[in-house]
């Protein structure tokens, strides 16, 4: 199967400039390949570096060493050294990211927040609206909320709006950071279906799923992120593939 992205030698240390330059080694020398149609689950103890790794794959954090080679528009691009305009284009067309929390934009209606990623790649507004409505309905967001800004929505409603937005475009790669954290059983099941449909169309997915049922329902492989013992007042983690 096609390798969608290939990570090698990836290392990340945070330097806390406002706290005396303290350094936190989060991960070191990570290698990971993700193929079309598979879902890799990042697994490991709290604080081990799962979210930091996921954010690095989205180029939110810049790793200190290593590469993230991504198939983007028929070419291979290294996200570690990519220019900002390339990262914007990658996020528009190739990688979707669903975090736990919706970044609410004041006064923008739910339907427009969800529609926006499809409009941004040039899909006609009526087609984008039809897909947004279908996703919002699947995720049980009541129709009366679609024209309202989601600032006042419940945590679970905001998370479902975020998921709808994240699944609007058929991205080749999806990064999912606990997409079901605030959801009830019915809505968790809807998200599991969306993830499995994305896999069936060939998307490569990397996710953090604390819910065991969800993890079992979508995961093909676990990627263990391990916290290492404290070393010279620093803490570091490493990672290794498990079956
Ligand atoms: N922006 C940041 N600046 C400094 N340190 C950070 C930053 N983000 C994360 N860290 C530190 O990096 C380490 C890994 O955090 P991360 O959130 O990646 O862990 P995690 O495995 O996702 O944890 P959890 O399962 O609890 O969400 C933690 O020690 C955290 O304090």
What is the fold's blueprint, element by element?
Elements: E1 3-16, E2 22-35, E3 39-43, H1 50-57, E4 65-72, E5 75-78, H2 84-93, E6 95-98, H3 110-119, H4 125-138, H5 155-166, E7 173-177, H6 185-200, E8 204-208, H7 212-218, E9 221-227, E10 237-241
Parallel strand pairs: 3-8, 3-9, 6-7, 7-8
Antiparallel strand pairs: 1-2, 1-4, 4-5, 9-10
The structure holds adenosine-5'-triphosphate (ATP).
What labels describe this entry?
32% helix; binds adenosine-5'-triphosphate; Rossmann fold; alpha/beta; 4-stranded antiparallel sheet
Molecular structure report:
It is a single chain. This protein has one domain: P-loop containing nucleotide triphosphate hydrolases (Rossmann fold, 3-Layer(aba) Sandwich), CATH 3.40.50. It has 7 helices and 10 strands. The chain has helices at 50-57, 84-93, 110-119, 125-138, 155-166, 185-200, 212-218; strands at residues 3-16, 22-35, 39-43, 65-72, 75-78, 95-98, 173-177, 204-208, 221-227, 237-241. A 6-stranded mixed beta sheet has the order 6-7-8-3-9-10, with helices on both faces. It has a 4-stranded antiparallel beta sheet with strand order 2-1-4-5, covered by helices on one side. Helix 3 packs across helix 4 (125-138) and helix 3 (110-119) runs parallel beside helix 5. The longest helix is centred in the last third of the chain and has 16 residues, at 185-200. It is globular. Adenosine-5'-triphosphate binds next to strand 1, strand 2 and helix 1. Adenosine-5'-triphosphate binds at residues 14, 16, 24, 26, 44, 46-52.
